[in-house]
Structure formats: C-alpha cells, structure tokens
Amino acid sequence: MKKRRFIFRLVLVVLLLLPVLVVLLVQTPPGKALLAKGLSNALSAPEHMEVRIGTITGWIPGSVNISSLEVGDAEGVWISGKNLHCRWMIKELLDKRVRLRRLSADEIVWHRFPKIGPRAPRTKKEDAGFQLLEIRLDGLDIESLKLEKGVAGVPLDYSVHSGGVSYLSGGRLTGDLAVSGDAEGRVVLDAELAGRATDRLTVTANLDELVHPTFGLDYLAGTAEAVISSEGVKAQLGLDLMYAGQEGHLSTGLHYRDHRLDFQDIEYADADQSLLGDVALTFTNHAVGVAVDATFVDVNTNRYNLEGRARVTTVNRQWGVDLQRLDIEVWETVAFSLSGALNAREVKLNGVLKEMDFRNLPMGGCSNFTGTVNGSVSVIGPLETPAVNAEVRVGKLRSVKGALDELPPLDFRVQGGIAEGRLFADTSITNYAKGHLAAGGGMPCEFSLRPLIFKPEPALTDADVNADLDLDIFNQLAFFQNQRLRGAIQARVSYEDRRPSGYLRVLNGRYEHFDLGIVIRAFNADLEATEQGFRIVEGHASGSGDGTIRFTGGLGSGGLDINLACSNAWILNRDEIEAQVSGNLHVGGRLFRPDLSGELTIDRADILLDNIVRDPPPVLTNYDRANPQAGVTARAKPRKPPPVGLDIRLLLPDQIFVNASMIEAVLGGSLRVVDTPQGVSVRGKIEPRRGFVSFIGKKFRFTEGEIVLDGSIPTMAVLDNLTAEYSRRDVTAQLILNGPANDPRFRLESTPAMPEDEVLSQVLFNRDTSSISPWQAYQIAVAAKQLSGGLNGPGFMYQIRQAVGIDTLEWREAEAAGEASSVAAGKYLTSGLYVEVNQTLDAQAQTGFTAELEISRHFSVETYTGPQMRPGIGLNWRNDY
To answer: Do 576 and 609 touch, CB atoms closer than 8 A?
Structure first.
C-alpha cells in the first residue's frame, strides 16, 4: 500500500514538475532551436505555404526575440521580418486578459502578393462555448515597413507606431496607428466584433502627404473612411493631388456587396477640366464586368458624355475583353460608338461616327455650311501586327443661304490607317462641275500592340497628288473677298525614293484684287518637279493692257526663289491710279509669307488726285453718357503687318501724269517701299517736271517745290512749297501749295509784293482794285474763297486728253491786246522726248511746233517754230533749290 502511495506521489510530482522542466528546457539554446523548428513546421502548409523562423532568444514566454521570419510559397518568399520582439504580461492571464506590453520589429518587407493555394474543405464545428479573452497591445513599433515594387508599383518605406490597440471581451476594438516615412498620416480603428449580425469594422485614414506618389503625381493627400459589415464594404474617399503642376481634387464613394463594386459619384476637378460619373465592377468566376457612365467638361466648356459596358475574363491564365459598347458624345452633337473584342492574341474593334449635319459641328465657320458627316474606324488582327483603318466622309458640302462663304457642292473624303507595315493617308475633293483633287501618301511603319511599338519612317515617305480644278471654285470663299480668280490648275505630282516627279500647271489664269487694284491676266505657268522642289519651266502673264510678265526660278524646301521680269505691264488699275511698270522683282521667303525685293520703273502712270478717298471721321468709343464733359478719343484701328515682305525701289521718270480739276502736271522722282510691323511704308520725293495749276481761269505753271513721302503709315503724300507762277508784263503771281495732296492749302504771293486781293485784281483784270467795277469786285471775292477750297473732280481737259490719247492739253490765252489765244497738245514719245503742237484760235489758225529732249535732270535741248517765234534751238538749264 505504501509502495503504491509512493509511486502515486512520484508521478504527481513529475506531472507538477514537467511544465517547469519544459519551461526550463526552452530557455536553453537547444530548446529554443527545437521550439523554432517546431513552430515553423506547425505554421507551414504543404505545397503552398512555408514558414521559417530564425533564432529565438530572450525569456520565454514573457519576452521573446526572433532574429528573422520568412513566409513563402512555391515561388519563394513573399514577406519577411528582422529582429522581431514581443513582451507580454503572463500574470494578466489570471484575469482572463492577454496583454502585450510591446510588439516591435526592426524591419518587415512585403516583397509581393502570395500565390493563393487550394482551400481546405470546411468542416462544421460545434460551438464549445469558449469566450475569447480580452486582448490589449500597449505599444507597436515597426521601424521599417517596406513595400516593394511588386506590391505598390514603386518601392515604399514606412515607419509604423501605435500608442495602443485593445479588443475588449464585449467585442469592441479600438486603436490608432501613426505612419511616417514615404507617407505621413494616421489610421484610426473602431469596430464591434462580437459574433453578431451587427458586427462592423470602421477604418478612418488621414493622409497628410504621400512623400513619393506614383502615377506621375507631384503631390497626394486626403482622407478615407471604410465601414466593413454584413452589408458589404462602404467607403468614402477624398484626395487632393497635383499633376504636372496642376492642383486637383478627387472624391468618390465605394460600395462592395454580392461580388459587385460600385464607384459612386466620382468627381474630379482642376483649373482646366472636370469629371463626374459612376463606374461599376461585377465579379464572377474568371470574369469582371465593367460599366461606365461619366461626363467630362474641359477648360473650354466642351462637354463629353461617356457610357459603356465591357466584360473582362481570365481563364487558364488567358485574358480577354469583350467590349459590348462604348458610346461617346461630344458637344452633344458628335456621337461615336465602339464595340468589339480584345484578348491576349488578337484585337477586333469597330467604331462608327454617326451621321450628322455638318453645320452642327462645334467648330468655327461650320455653321456657314450644310452637308452630312459620317465615318468609321477599325483595329483588326494579331496584337503583334494589327491593321488600323479610319475614314471620314463629308457629302454634299455646300454653303447655307446668305453665308459669307458661298461654296459650291463638294464631296470630301479623308482616309488613313496602318496595314502591312505601312502608314498611309489619302483624301479627295470632288465637285462634278468644277473638277477634283486627290492626294495620298504613306511611309513604312512598325506598329504593334504587344509590345507597344509605333515607329514610322518619314525619310521613306512617298506621296502623289492629282488635280484638275477650276480656280473659280475658290471665289465664293470669304478669304477671297474683293478678289477674283479665273483659270484652271492641273497637277500630276509623285514623291518616291526621296525624288519628286511630275508637273503643276496653271492655264489661262487671271487674278484681280479690287481693293489694291492689282490685275494679272493671261497667266500661264508650267512647273516641273525636281529634287529641290518645283522649277518653273515656263511662266508668263500680262496686266490689264499691253506688256508682259515673265517668271523664272522655282520653289522648294528652302522656300521661294522666283524672279519676275516686267516689261511695260499694266498691273495697277485703280480709280485713282493706273500704272505701267518694267523691271525685275525677286520673290523669296516662305510660301505663305513671301518677300518681294527689286527695282521697278514706272513707265507711265495716270493719277487722279480727286479720286483718292479721304479718311472717314473717327468713331468715338470712350464716350461716357454720365460724364459728357469728359474728353473722348478716337478708336485706334489696329493695323496688321502686310502679308508679304517688301523692299522695292520705284524709279519714276517723267511719265507720271497727275490730273485734277485745277491741276495737270508731269512728275518724276524715286520712292522706296518697305514693310514694317505697322504696315507698308513709302519714302521718297516726287518733283514736277512741267505742268500747271488752273486757278481763277488762269494757268499757273509749276516752277519749284516737291511732293514728299516720309514713310508714315498710312501713306500720305505731302506738298512741300509746290509753287506755280503766272506772269504779266508788270506783275508775277505765285500760287504756293502745302499740305496733304488730297486736301492741300493754298497761298497767293506776288512780285512785287501786293495784298492778296490786289494780286487777284492784277491777274484777273490787269488793273488795281481802285479801278474795278462792283461785278469785278465780286469775282475777286469768289476767287479769294476758292483759295480755301480743294481740287474737285477730274477736269474737262483731262477727259478730252484721255479720249484723244495725248499727254497734255491746255488753253493759252493772249497775253496782250491784239494777240490771239491758242490751244496746245503734247505727248511724250519716250520718257525724255516731249513734242508739242499749238495752234492760234483766230482766223489765221497758225500752227507751231516744239520738241524738248531731256539730257539729264537739269539740262535739256529744245527746238521750236511757230507764228509768234522764230525757228531755233535753245539750251535749258534748271536747278532745284
């Protein structure tokens, strides 16, 4: 009996000492190694998870240190840690609490997401009635929590600290986490986890700043709140971000339930654009359904509506996208629809631009036209070599009634794409009455969607243009307002192997600019394509009358290089001036902004001063009705720079004929015409060679003075002491003109000096004012008033000259009693040879002849014969001072 008692006591002591022995064993290095191995095996699962625990140190179980921890799968380690430490209070177990005083780690690295292995079959377990103990974590310190590229897209490094996390026996979970490093923020946890249907977990995150944001963002901060319950997951997200220096705000609500994730009320806005919409994702076995309904508005208030449905599938590691439909509406008028499929091997997408009225396109000028617009696009073939084709068709395009542009009916088509390693495009414009234009081109191009490659080779471009158009088709465009084109253009041009070939021809062309008075007629040009561009094989034209204009040179990649040779060409025909020119011009620069330079001689010009339109009165724009006493200023009309560069010298020999009701003169001189940012500047001087001013019925002949153009913009000719004289035996009267040519000021002087009314009396009646009649006094008053008037309309003598074809025609009254008046007519046979015939107006009708040859500007030889002069030869010297 005693022996049995001893054995029982011995067994009882051994049982009591066994836990102590176990605890003492695991405190030894071999025991701790055995514990690490046993825990590694217990936590591992064959074939899909392996746990490796490194060296264990410290007092077990109160304060445990683990040198390393690795968790992996068949492809390797996906999460690891270094120097993990756990300290907990064993005595708290007596109060049914688990209390961890400190949980820390020097480093935890999340390398990638784990591969999910097969799930073990679930077995129904009976409720043993065990109640989970209360758990408290007093401190959490992870010095480095690293997320590698496979997890976050870019490497990230955080520090995580917590002042406490607790789970009470009633199911209440509370706590907070502070995050620093690549992100600065705070996470707050609040949950009810008691095993009831009302359980929920609320996570609130405040992100002060993401130090190294992804997706090209410069800055990211915001707040998020998520609630997880039996009804699914509900969250609200608000982010402030910066992309390419542009600040924006993004907000959305999320709801996940029954395999469906809804992004509700997505809103994004920055200074240039805004986005509002919804996105829904539906998850099933091996598939995700996508539904989008959104509206986008850009900085120009253009509105884009987007609505679509798609299905994304993954089966046996093969993915595919079935795009049921994607509808895009732009500006509430342009509608585009896309559908098709895309998978890991091939793509088959087709899009349609729905037919609409051309006038509804929200682009400038489209409302002036009517017609139909439609199109299509397709991407079909293997991902490595897909074929792309796009086409836009415009049918029966024409101007609406009353539009500035009156375009005849046109059919217009543009097509482009990529196929068989070639990028191509072609277009055509057809009007069945006015001709057609077709152009196309292409180049080698490597294009792939897997991998994404787009490598065109512009150096190997080839192209061709075929045209046969009537230039009249362009006359109804507003761009050609006050202009007119005539003729035809033919083109057959090809570009291949870096060599152009073919021709461009203009046949029976005509151009008129009604405002500028430019007239080019009988324009014919034949251009040949060369390696440098286009060379003019033959080109000639004429003006409004006789004379020719010939073209040589060409145009190429370096710009224009054209020479114009004018010979007696009448190219200027305006109401106030007609001009015939000779000389050479060079046209350089760019095609749409050419530069003209050279020297032209005005062979002949007829100028009607009275047809020069005076500037209209200024329009007052800053008038304040509330303050009518305030000053007002005229609106300054902005001036555009000329469409061409100009640097032309104009030589004016004695063939410039000026006419008005009171003036007929022959002028000469030189001018220089250049372009400036403010407009065209004309600088130079024009001097009278001969002629007269008709005043109070008398002919005042020009003796000195000049017309000056100082380069001002707009151009204004100014008379500078332009002096004309009328002489009698005892008095010489001078009429002096100053000021603008179209509105000059008059001044009357005499030798010997006399008052103005006395000069008028001597000129009109050859007597002083003391011996004139009242009627003669009235005539003097009318003449004095005429001094303040202008030059009113082309004179009767000018009209006769034009009809007869002579250059000068004047009435010369008798200078003394008993002498006869005469009429004289003259013409310039050349620019320096002037001949004149005169005849007395009496019964004898005697005829005289004068010829003058100008040797230089100051020296001329004159011969004359007539009834009142002896035949002879004279030498004339004239000096301007």
So the answer is: yes
790 confidence band (pLDDT: 50, 70, 90): very low
* The amino acid at 639: R
Mean pLDDT of 419-437: 85
Q: Hey, what are 532's tokens?
A: 């440098």
**Alpha-carbon distances, residue 635 vs 622, 632, 678, 716, 861 (angstroms):** 8, 9, 16, 20, 55
Q: What is the mean pLDDT of residues 499-512?
A: 90
For residue 807, what pLDDT is reported? 67
Average pLDDT along the chain: 79
Q: How far is CA 686 from CA 261, 349, 514, 859, in A?
A: 87, 74, 26, 18
What's residue 348's pLDDT?
95
Question: How far is residue 626 from each of residues 403, 623, 629, 631, measured CA to CA in Å?
Answer: 39, 9, 9, 12
DSSP β-ladder status, 593-608 and 645-660: parallel
Give DSSP secondary structure letters for 781-823. Answer: HHHHHHTTS---S--HHHHHHHHHT-SEEEEE--SSTTPPPEE
Residue indicated by tokens 């009142």: 868
C-alpha angle with apex 208: 207 to 210, nearest 5 degrees?
75
How many residues comprise the chain?
Answer: 881
- CA 474 vs CA 393, 408, 477, 506: distances in Å: 21, 9, 6, 15
In the chain, what is the greatest distance between 2 CA atoms, to the nearest angstrom?
A: 193
- C-alpha span between 55 and 36 (Å, rounded): 7
CB atoms within 10 A of CB 839: 17
Q: What are phi and psi of 631, to 5 degrees?
A: -70, 155
Contact 78, 111 (CB under 8 A): yes
Which tens digit of pLDDT belongs to each residue from 558-568? 788 999 999 99
Average pLDDT over residues 804-830: 68
Decide: 512 and 484 in contact? Cβ < 8 Å: yes
The answer to whether the pTM exceeds 0.70 is no
**Relative orientation angle of helices 756-765 and 774-786, to the nearest 10 degrees:** 120
User: Residue holding tokens 């993915």?
Assistant: 319
- Which helix (H) or strand (E) segment is 40 a member of? helix 29-43
Tokens of 143: 């010095």
**Cα–Cα nearest to 33, from 60, 62, 63:** 60
Residue 76: what pLDDT? Answer: 85
